[in-house]
Amino acid sequence: MSGLEGEVLGIATLSLKVALTATIVACLLGIPLGFMLGLTRFAGRRALLVVLNTALAFPTVVIGLLIYLLLARRGPLGGLGLLFTWHAIVIAEVILAAPIAIALSAAAVQAVDPRVRRTALTLGAGSLRTAWTIAREARFALAAAVVVAFGRVLSEVGAALIVGGNVLHETRTLTTAITLATSQGNFTLAVALGLVLLGLALTVNVLIQLFQGRGDI
Amino acid sequence: MATFEVSGLRQAYAGRTVLALDALTVEPGARLAVVGPNGAGKSTLLRLLAFLEPPTAGIIALNGVPVDGRAARRQARSLVTLVEQRPYLFRGTVERNVAYGLRVRGMPAEAVHHRVSEALERLRLQDLAGRNARSLSEGEIQRVAVARALALEPQALLLDEPVSGADRAAQHALLAALAEAQARRPLAIIFASHLLEDAYRWAEQLLALHQGVPSPVTPENLFRVDLPGTAPMQRVAVGPLTIEVVTDRRGPATLAIPPEEIVLSMESLHSSARNVLAGRIIRVAEHGAAIRVTLDAGVELVALITRKSFEEMGLAVGASAYASFKSVAVRVF
Q: What is the ipTM, given to two decimal places?
């Protein structure tokens, strides 16, 4: 393996690690919240939906800036020493992806036939089991929420640059590497990295599709 | 002890009362038919008895214990099961669907399998066990939903229009399975239907609802009218007919002509009855010792007569007949 290939492989691996970690954390937090938002009625729910929909369109560089200020040496969380580490990128991307997971899973459970809930309840299911049954019935829409969140995180560049710093072997992801290669005029490398990024996105989506198909009946 | 004892039950949605039922008792092993037109409150009553929603007011006691609060309703739901008019089957196989409630109850896999097979056999569904629930016909879905409910061996089974989507053979299998389930153990069955024939054929107890309240008569011969208010004797348009009623009310109202108050004759009667309507017999159904005869006189009228009169008069479908009833027999509410 040449030095360049090794470098690309390292960048791709880091990208995947960051994107998967951020997607998993965002979905673990976001899907239960989406369920709550989709299935229950409480005061302030509409206001929360407005905030959430605004967060969907939040500029990534603004999130990057906020996280930077939080994690900077003199910031409130500066003592953690997370700035310019891949963990900082994960934090920023969780904040970007969580609203997607919440909003899309809320929409997914709201779209489920209301008879599902009544049927589960009348057959003796408790609240948790009923929620699980609703999730099973809505699994295609929930998988779509995961895919969209993953896509957002994998293709994100602004926040990753600001809080990661684009440090080789540490925080250089595919998107930040493409930015750097382009600015250096190294278009061959930029295109190659872009193809790797597309390949990664395609692979993960195909895997999710296969997973969905298996449980179809 | 009664399975259900209902008192002062009220249900309102967005401030509009859709059900007001002062009292209802359902004994173990009872067969109660809740009849009435669409929007009469039948499905609301079933959802309340299934403890799927809390009533706006009133008490529902299950086995003598008032069920109040979320936890109590959750507990009660393990004893009562509702099969909706258009039942929902979860993704997966028929077998998985029938097993759902048993799994929820934490029953061991072997016992679940046994119960599921038994329930499927009773509804003649054993051949469908491995089928994808999404590939079933409407009638099959209904039977699978009943099998899924019966597998739980509930104390009360609530069925909303249970034979609406089924063909005759499927209906027979369904009713036979329900009768068999009742023969094995005390199971109260309450079913809602807009088809009175089903109710009369099957039920031992009848609750007629009209616009959310129990109707003083069965929901046959109910007509929405606009009373002109020319008291006390009023001539009211009912479809193409004019019927004489005695009331001092005016404006929109419902007329009810009790089937037992209608006299059938082969010729027009000269009697004190102010209403004499000519028509043709379109349906004849047994109702215990009596016969229910449906006459098309421009609107459908149901008369209840004894079997002896029916036989002596030689009435049959297609025959012409006259329906006579007194204006004071017409109830207005």
A: 0.76
What pTM did the predictor assign? 0.74
With contact defined as beta carbons under 8 Å apart, do B221 and B331 qualify? no
Alpha helices in B50-162 (DSSP H): 70-76, 94-104, 109-122, 138-150
Consecutive 10-residue averages of pLDDT for chain B (333 residues): 96 94 95 87 96 96 96 96 95 96 96 96 92 91 95 96 71 84 93 73 82 77 83 87 90 85 90 92 82 90 91 89 94 80
**φ, ψ at B244 (rounded to 5°):** -95, 130
Rounded-to-integer distance, Cα A133 and Cα B308, Å: 57
| B77, B150, B153: best to mutate for the A interface, most A CBs within 10 A | B77
Among all residues of chain B, which has the CA nearest to that of A126? B74
- B18 backbone φψ class: left, alpha, beta (φ>0; ψ -120 to 50): alpha
Degrees (nearest 5) of the Cα angle B268, B270, B271?
120
Please tell me the distance in Å from A215's CA to the nearest CA on chain B: 8
The answer to whether the CB atoms of B152 and A217 lie below 8 A apart is no
Query: Is the distance from CB of B232 to CB of B210 less than 8 angstroms?
Result: no
Find out whether A90 and A146 touch, Cβ atoms under 8 Å.
Answer: no
